[in-house]
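Translate sequence into structure tokens.
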Amino acid sequence: MPPVYESLLLNTVVPQIQAAQAGDSYVMVVNATTPALRITQTGTGDAILVEDAANPDSSPFVVTAAGDVGIGTSSPGYKLDVSGQVRALEGGTGSGDGGLIGSTGSASGNAGVLFQTNATSRWNLTTQGTNGASLRFYNYALASTVATFDASGNLGLGVTPSAWGSGFKAFQVGTTGGLAGGNNSTYLSTNWYQDSGINNRYLTTSTAGLAGWEGNVFKWYQAASGTAGDPITFIQAMTLDASGNLGVGTTIPGSYLSGTAKLVAYANANSQNNILVRNDSNGASSSSAIALNAAGNTWGIEIGSSAKNGNALTFQLDYGVTNSEKMRLDASGNLGLGQAPAVRKFEINAISAAVSQLNGIRLQMNGVATSASEFLVGTDSGGVPFSSLRTGNDGNSYMTFFTGSGPTERARITSGGNFLIGTVSELSGNYKLQIVGATSGNGIYYQNTTNSGNAALFVNAAGSSVGDINVGASSTAYNTSSDYRLKNNIAPMTGALAKVAALKPVTYKWKADGSDGEGFIAHELQAVVPQCVTGEKDAVDAEGKPIYQGIDTSFLVATLTAAIQEQQAMINELKAEVAALKGA
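Result follows.
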């Protein structure tokens, strides 16, 4: 039996809305040029509410009187407010094309949009973490996240951004690449990020580098290999300042050469500075040169081909015009000043190669490891030097100074930079100046041309004066720094009398010559007043030789003074008590 409908006629002979029996649907047929359904809400309720009778308000469809549409929510706050997932199908084919917006509805869940063209070509844009801490782009074909925005606004391409500090916004590319900006700086980097404690750190275990603007200065930094997560110690390798000065190996290129150098290559270690000017031709006039011009004067530093000048390096005045050669370094390593060198390593205005010519300076090297290189100053007619400066002639690295017709060695500088006078062997200990004199002679003689001034000034590693030896008209003062501006936490000394009571003054005889002495034993004094003693008890050097302790008793003056004051206070107290007893 066919269903029975109840009909509602809307200005037509054909029913436009038919209500079927239970279990059937409402049918609405409209054939008009005006709106099929128009609802005017004159009250405060919703214009339309569609809900499940079995579970009202659980997932309604609502159109409010204000025109806001809610799906899955009865209180839409926007023109379209959806609580739940939304799926859009292309063409209504049901093939899975289109997009999906999803949310778990919890703070720790994800919400996202799925972009899909077929079963395998899918991308997902989702939030992740508590309250959507990051936004990621996920590729299903690659089965990986290809890009991530974190909650701080940092972007990682192929990697999750590191925990950058708030001072930077960063774009990380892969495991090491990056671009970061902030704090008036922008950097292109490899294997670097800066944490919230403003510490530079390695992203992976490898080397690291930075190049970027700091204000209006462009800087290049590099760092040796380090472990992922460890702090980075950068070395500023190159600097381009705002004036266009480029410094290699220096942080202040404009400060060198009175600030006029546009390119400064600087090193303070055993490294190389290379500037290459190359010409691969070997023609008759082929050369490579650097021209230096100032106020119309042009110097040329030129190396010619073998066909031109035998591969020699020449220094020429009026370069490019007269090419007046002033100095030449030939292919054999000989240097001539004033003319091409003959046979000596260094010749100045040489007349001939004969040794008898007094040429002022000559450097000689016999090419044997045990032979000396020599700098001769003044020779007799037979070529015997009156004085000379030599390098070591026994395979060691040192420089010696000779005088006399012998000649006789008078001083030397060792490979460690120690200066020896009157001896060829270093004394015990690494002393920069070591002097051995005759028994009746004086080791050091100092005379001031005025009646005041320092014979010696002692400076610490920071460059501050910490003491001096001051010479007056009739006395010498040995001073150590004691200015109040160098001190803090100043307080009266206490317990000095107890310290003095703990001291152990002794008499003794010196082992060297049996002479009498009196004073203290260093380590015993060190236990009471450590400032008076240097060194450690029973210390030895690498060869097992003793390193003796020393005492500066001047540090006892303050302790003794305070002890006397304490003792005098006790005396005064006793005197007052005696006076009180006598008065009674």
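Note: The first strand starts at residue 6 and ends at 8.
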